[in-house]
Amino acid sequence: MPDPVCLITGVGPGTGAALARRFASGYRVAMLARTATRLAELEKELPGTRGYTCDVADEQQLARTFAAIVDELGDPQVVLHNAVGGAFGDFLSIDPQVLQQNFNVNTMALLQLARLTAPAMIEAGRGAILCTGNTSTYRGKAHFAGFAPTKAAQRILAESMARRLGPDGIHVAYLAIDAVIDLEWTRKRMPDKPDSFFCRPDDIASECWHIVHQPPSAWTFDVQIRPAAENW
């Protein structure tokens, strides 16, 4: 039997790439991102992966991409929605269209992915859908008005999906990352911070692997991770 299929959105240089590397061991990985160059590099690095250039905010483009994945790899057994749209600003200064765009990336894309992938999972009686978020999911700070409402909606949608799909054997979970992720640009922006301040993408990916492979008798939905030094 061929390895099962894992679909990952938002395969960027940090968490997305780490997820692809972690799940490439045991899965055929469909990687979605808007940047074709990065996907091509990961395809060369990781046998069994395939990159698909896709803007998940575009409903028709996402549907076409999903059809190609099913045709070339098969129905995904695992979906990791890691793509994120974000913007800073208070409610007086943000462009309403930016909020709408972020809603399309964060919430509407999750809805469409679930509608595309859940029927085959229900038929198989197994599967997992995991969404990555952050603490703006739970609180609306003054300058997160263009972002936090969409992540809160995303989590509530995921919870609704979990309640609907759990009895069918499909595990839906939400992972909130309360941290600055360890990336080249975050290190440059915060050169005075020690290693313990940052959350490593590989460690995030390992936790995602753990959540996806939890036994059905002990599933989690809300998961929060943070570095030991994080003030919370």
Approximate shape: globular
Query: How many E-type strands?
Result: 9
- Helix vs. strand class: alpha/beta
CATH fold-level label: Rossmann fold
Order of helices and strands: EHEHEHEHEHEEHEHE
> What portion of residues belong to β-strands?
15-25%
How many structural domains does the protein architecture include?
1
What is the rounded Rg? 17 Å
Helices, strands, pairings?
Layout: E1 5-9, H1 15-23, E2 28-33, H2 36-45, E3 49-53, H3 59-72, E4 76-81, H4 96-124, E5 127-134, H5 148-165, E6 170-177, E7 180-181, H6 184-189, E8 198-199, H7 201-212, E9 222-225
Parallel strand pairs: 1-2, 1-4, 2-3, 4-5, 5-6, 6-9, 7-8
Helix pairs in contact: 1-7, 3-4, 4-5
Which descriptors apply to this entry?
232 residues; alpha/beta; seven-stranded parallel β-sheet
What does this structure look like?
By secondary structure, this protein is an alpha/beta fold. The protein has one domain (5-225): Rossmann fold (3-Layer(aba) Sandwich), CATH 3.40.50. It is built from 7 helices and 9 strands. It has helices at 15-23, 36-45, 59-72, 96-124, 148-165, 184-189, 201-212; strands spanning 5-9, 28-33, 49-53, 76-81, 127-134, 170-177, 180-181, 198-199, 222-225. The strands form 2 sheets. It has a 7-stranded parallel beta sheet, with helices on both faces. Helix 3 packs parallel to helix 4 (96-124). The relative contact order is 0.14.
